[in-house]
């Protein structure tokens, strides 16, 4: 990573830049390959749909994408992506392919601010190194949806790795997976640089990979948002925090590098008096809170946790990047489907070969995680009342496989299927995920797609209302993403 120079954004624009600097507003751009000169501290913003491919190559100078430097002359291809290539000192890009929009962003003060936060974290890590019993910074990132939280987390992680650190990234947003499909919490210590096109990439729980492995700790969260089941969500936070803390105690480098926690926008909830954020701060012993995109949230956090409160935790208000954009429901659905596909089939650079497993009903220990959204989807499927006992107050219920599971993702837990303690079932980490590709109620058997050839024996298999069913996973399986 190159540090920012003294040039001011907007100065020294070439003609190409000034014309490219206008938002195109067109729904689809198809272009021949062409060169774009970027002045220092500017960024090339683009939005590419899932049907398009857009390629960028740095031909001179240095540029980075969310904290990860692009290698010179290497083409990077993006699909289903909204992002920005930032340059501190200026660069030239070769751009080709299709995009929904592309433009030169000159308001990059946010990036300088983010880099300053990285500098603060480095100081805290140095302090932790000198006083070895203390851990590094434990950072919580909060804010409404689509304000750049995940981009900030990714940038801070990328810069930390460039500085030789091994930060632990925790994703508590079940809408979007990190090294996993949606519907999970992940904690992963990052020891090698992230990928430009694919962020955190894929992990061994998806199958053997050729890239350096990042082994995540995964918990199952089959709800799209915390308000669906706040108590379960909080219990899973406690479980994750305990496991992460224990893991850091075994690895001094990771402990000194600290934690960065990404959260869903739904935690920004004054009505509940930010109950879940309070829980998170206490369980992870947070030392720094970064708020994005909401002045009210910043003030509320400052009052509740800031230096004047009994908690005395620094709370900072961080700028939202000008390029951060809303991803509508259709885009999010495609993103979620793509994450599920990638879990089983890998990416165009790192493809995987999933395996088919058939189990009889008698061999399976299936549990359903009840939730309001699952109850709603069952009633819309017109389920027989006896098949859909979701009115039950139990969080998990043992069940016989049925057609409702078709197209769903199931979590294979480390605990035994004979587990009767609901809390042990909830708190057990995930060994891997499988996809229900066929349910034969007449022959009483279920066919799954799973990343590994080994069967999972009598382990507990849990599914819930999230993520939603994917209908076209098998059959499109040969397609690479
Ligand atoms: N500087 C930027 N230029 C262009 N696009 C950006 C920029 N920063 C972020 N984005 C894009 O804007 C979108 C929203 O950003 P991001 O996912 O970081 O927000 P978020 O607050 O984490 O959202 P959510 O709460 O949904 O997880 C993403 O597609 C991201 O890649």
TrEMBL record:
<keyword id="KW-0808">Transferase</keyword>
<protein>
    <submittedName>
        <fullName>Cleavage polyadenylation factor subunit clp1</fullName>
        <ecNumber>2.7.1.78</ecNumber>
    </submittedName>
</protein>
């Amino acid at each position: 990573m190159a540090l920012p120079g003294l040039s001011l954004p907007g100065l020294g624009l070439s003609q190409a830049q000034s014309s490219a600097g206008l938002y195109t507003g067109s729904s689809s751009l198809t272009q021949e390959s062409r060169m774009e000169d970027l002045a220092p501290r500017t960024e090339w913003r683009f939005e590419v749909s899932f049907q398009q491919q857009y390629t960028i190559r740095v031909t001179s100078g240095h540029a980075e994408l969310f904290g990860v430097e692009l290698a010179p002359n290497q083409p990077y291809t993006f699909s289903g992506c909204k992002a920005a290539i930032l340059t501190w000192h200026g660069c030239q890009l070769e751009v080709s392919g299709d995009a929904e929009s592309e433009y030169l962003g000159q308001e990059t003060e946010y990036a300088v601010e983010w880099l300053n936060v990285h500098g603060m974290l480095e100081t805290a890590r140095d302090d932790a190194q000198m006083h070895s019993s203390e851990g590094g910074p434990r950072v919580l990132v909060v804010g409404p949806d689509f304000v750049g939280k995940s981009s900030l987390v990714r940038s801070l992680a990328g810069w930390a790795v460039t500085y030789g650190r091994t930060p632990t990234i925790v994703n508590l947003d079940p809408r979007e997976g990190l090294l996993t499909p949606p519907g999970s919490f992940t904690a992963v210590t990052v020891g090698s640089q992230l990928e430009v096109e694919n962020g955190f990439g894929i992990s061994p729980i998806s199958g053997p990979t050729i890239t350096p492995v990042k082994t995540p700790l995964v918990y199952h969260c089959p709800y799209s948002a915390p308000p669906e089941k706040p108590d379960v969500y909080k219990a899973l936070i406690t479980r994750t925090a305990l496991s992460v803390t224990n893991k850091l105690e075994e690895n001094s480098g990771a402990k000194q590098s600290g934690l960065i926690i990404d959260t869903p926008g739904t935690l920004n909830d004054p009505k509940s008096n930010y109950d879940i954020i309070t829980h998170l701060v206490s369980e992870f012993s947070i030392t720094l809170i970064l708020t994005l995109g909401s002045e009210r949230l910043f003030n509320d956090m400052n009052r509740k946790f800031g230096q004047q409160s009994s908690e005395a935790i620094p709370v900072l208000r961080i700028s939202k990047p000008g390029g951060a954009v809303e991803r509508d429901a259709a885009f999010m659905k495609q993103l979620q489907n793509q994450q599920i596909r990638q879990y089983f089939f890998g990416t165009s650079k790192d493809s995987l070969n999933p395996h088919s497993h058939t189990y009889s009903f008698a061999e399976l220990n299936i549990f359903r995680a009840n939730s309001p959204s699952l109850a709603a989807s069952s009633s819309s499927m017109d389920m027989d009342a006896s098949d859909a006992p979701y009115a039950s107050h139990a969080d998990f219920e043992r069940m016989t496989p049925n057609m409702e599971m078709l197209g769903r993702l199931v979590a294979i837990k480390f605990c035994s299927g004979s587990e009767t303690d609901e809390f042990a079932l909830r708190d057990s980490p995930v060994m891997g995920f499988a996809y229900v590709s066929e349910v034969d109620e007449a022959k009483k058997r279920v066919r799954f797609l799973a990343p590994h050839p080994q069967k999972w024996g009598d382990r507990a298999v849990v599914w819930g209302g999230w993520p939603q069913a994917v209908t076209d996973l098998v059959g499109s399986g040969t397609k690479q993403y």
